[in-house]
């Protein structure tokens, strides 16, 4: 998609430094309405206010964008503005000089976003501006819960086990999980780690990649206990996450299972997996991950992650102006009104219209801390090894200790 | 990548299969050539014009070979000695550490084992089945053309499409296969055919057999057309039964075809990727990983390009050694028959 609103009339009215104007390339993954049209409008507005600036938009499907971005980073021919998930993945790119440091140039916006930028900050320097941060929890089918006679959503693991038993007694598969792709299964381990470990133990482990604290073993054991209760959909070891009706999201969307652990994207994914485009519709419910009896973590802490706008190392200042505009009150409010995600600008929080997302936003903003998905936090190499080992634990072929060993081995911090 | 004919996941692997292997076919190094004098005479016989012609004709293919085969192979070898994330300069030289890492990696061992299983099982299953079907379809019968087409259809189907269809058929409980079993009062495995680690590789093998049997049948049928009728006729006149004719005449004469097919099948099995990726992504619990899925996981998904490159070099070496061994000890029988130098003896 190419927008060429601005001409290149030399000697135009002020604007950028040289008369020929500046072209900015912008990659994003809102390739469906309403996000697609909204972002196009935003770019056109910006170009109208900034003569001489041309924004070239490439809207891509999410996985396609990831692949193309990897290739772009390898070749060095990068878009000026791209999406960045933060954590260890970002640290590698910073080392390679592929991301522009925004700390001083975007100080005002960074201050406005407050704690949200933590996942994109390294050694006190901030490298990207988060525009949507969500949290992970259980999405459930209220009708199936009712059918099984469940009135209250579980808040502790014991209650979760009771819920699982009640659903099974009613002939309903309790939980779907896309363990075939690794990360959906791994989210359970992350959450158990979040519940079992104190904030301090977790932070130490995330930064040092050493998992000496016994809470990480307890996290694996809690997960083993859950797996032993056999709550998952048949064939969960090879179930994909989101692709098609037999994926974990598809099973929830079509009423084949009662719940699934997933992030804020889930209602949107489910809408795409049902013929009527409604997903679970009115039957969509959400509850946070239950607490564990031996947990040392804050019971309201949440696991989450999000997307941020980052600039390539040599992006022009106009690109910086544009991403600050993307995080302005006006654009974030529009972003929220279109239910494109969970806005990070506090001024936009009230603009969200979808009740499920509004509920999530409340959980996110009342959480004392939001832990970034551990695989993102650790980077692809360590995160991938961790996710694979957790998938083996789901298959009964790895122990709680193996998971910790696998992470330390991949990180080179074993011993 | 989704090239159904070769199942080739990477240029590296293809190079291993095609490049050096075929080179040996063309120039069997058996006898010393007719002496330097003859060679010199031949060289003198080529005019500058002819040399230019040869250069012009060979250059495009040579350039493509270098750019798309030789260069990537050399780069992979280079990368395999570094720890590299895929971007930034190549500075972290680690020597053979990547090779040590994969050669001591259980997942890679599993991947090699699975590849070898597929190599053997493909030949063991598809050779007798393909031969039997080809012999049957070679007899004049009603609807011969239609049957031949039907047998060949799976091979023509795009690998990814066939994979997605089988993936849905094999789903636990809601899949067609489990639904049929249920009708007969049976039930599939609780975790499904693709979700049970002990069964997944066999399930994949059955799908692969379904997919590639047509290739074996068509090649055998083509081979059968090349067997002269007078030989079989002579056998019949001498009183040989149909079975005897097939067993003693047709099948031995089909030897070159079978050996060539087995070679193609072996190379395809070593490079197996797309069907596995669609059906299981190497899971559950690494039960169906192949060398190709291993190197993709390490490279693309974990950004361990050094380790992935080392794995691709190992795959290259394994494929090369197996291809050369096969050429030397099995295919050489077929090649030497019409070698002019041997013919002079």
What structural category arises from helix and sheet content of chain B?
mainly alpha
**Unreliable segments of 5+ consecutive residues of chain B:** 1-34, 339-345
Strand order of the largest sheet of chain B: 1-2
Shape of chain A: globular
If classified by CATH, what would the architecture of chain B be?
Orthogonal Bundle
N-to-C series of helices and strands of chain B:
HHHEEHHHHHHHHHHHHH
Secondary structure class of chain A reads alpha/beta
CATH topology of the largest domain in chain A: D-Maltodextrin-Binding Protein, domain 2
Number of helices of chain B: 16
Q: Give the CATH superfamily of chain B.
A: MetI-like
Largest sheet of chain B: 2 strands, antiparallel
Largest interface: A-B, 34 and 31 residues
Q: So what's the overall shape of chain B?
A: flat
Helicity range of the residues of chain A?
A: 40-55%
Poorly predicted tracts of residues of chain A: 1-19
Q: Got a strand count of chain A?
A: 12
CATH topology assignment of chain B: MetI-like fold
Q: How would you sum up this structure, described in words?
A:
The complex is a heterodimer of chains A (415) and B (345). Chain A is α/β, with parallel strands linked by helices and 415 residues long. Chain A folds into 2 domains: 22-133 and 305-371, Periplasmic binding protein-like II (D-Maltodextrin-Binding Protein, domain 2), CATH 3.40.190; 137-302 and 372-411, D-Maltodextrin-Binding Protein, domain 2 (3-Layer(aba) Sandwich), CATH 3.40.190.10. Chain A has 17 helices and 12 strands. Chain A has helices spanning 35-49, 62-75, 87-95, 107-113, 142-147, 157-169, 183-196, 199-208, 215-228, 248-253, 266-271, 317-326, 329-337, 355-366, 374-378, 380-394, 400-411, and strands spanning 22-28, 53-59, 81-84, 121-122, 125-126, 128-135, 137-141, 173-176, 257-262, 284-287, 302-311, 370-372. In chain A, the strands form 4 sheets. In chain A, strands 3, 6, 11 and 12 form a 4-stranded mixed sheet that branches. In chain A, strands 8-9-7-10 form a 4-stranded mixed sheet. In chain A, β4 (121-122) and β5 form a beta hairpin. In chain A, α7 crosses α9 (215-228) and α16 (380-394) runs antiparallel to α17 (400-411). The radius of gyration of chain A is 22 Å and the shape is globular. Chain B has 345 residues and is mainly α. Chain B has one domain: Orthogonal Bundle (MetI-like fold), CATH 1.10.3720. Chain B is built from 16 helices and 2 strands. Chain B has helices at 11-26, 36-45, 48-79, 97-103, 106-138, 144-156, 159-169, 176-183, 197-225, 229-237, 242-253, 255-270, 274-279, 291-301, 305-337, 340-344, and strands spanning 82-83, 92-93. In chain B, strands 1-2 form a two-stranded antiparallel sheet. The longest helix of chain B has 33 residues, at 106-138. The radius of gyration of chain B is 24 Å and the shape is flat. Chain B starts with 10 loop residues before the first helix and ends with a helix. Chains A and B meet through α2, α3 and α16 of A and α14 of B.
